[in-house]
Amino acid sequence: MKAKVWVNQLVEVTIDEKKFDKKFMESFRNTFYDFDDISDHIKHLAQLQARGFENDFIEGYGSRDDMGIQLEVIDQDEEFA
Q: From CA 78, how far away is CA 63, in angstroms rounded?
């Protein structure tokens, strides 16, 4: 059997905005992705959570606790395509 399934998740992202200062943003942009503002980071972190990433250390950010990052799937829905 083969099937295509849409999986939609609602991810709640909490961050410490103070940690995402100009110096951090510039360093991240030069090393990883060309993110212009904090919303780019929030979307990226939500995507990591949706894909099942559960490590305390997140490349580019460091420790979740140090950056005030909390990620939680608060709703999920699946349906056949």
A: 31
Residue 32 lies in a domain: yes
Residue in 40, 44, 51 with CA at minimum distance from that of residue 73: 51
Model confidence band, residue 27 (pLDDT cutoffs 50, 70, 90): very high
DSSP structural state of residue 5: E
Between CA 50 and CA 54 the distance in angstroms is 10
With cut-offs at 50, 70 and 90, classify the pLDDT of residue 3: very high
The residue range of the domain holding 71 is 5-76
**Alpha-carbon distance 28 to 75, whole Å?**
30
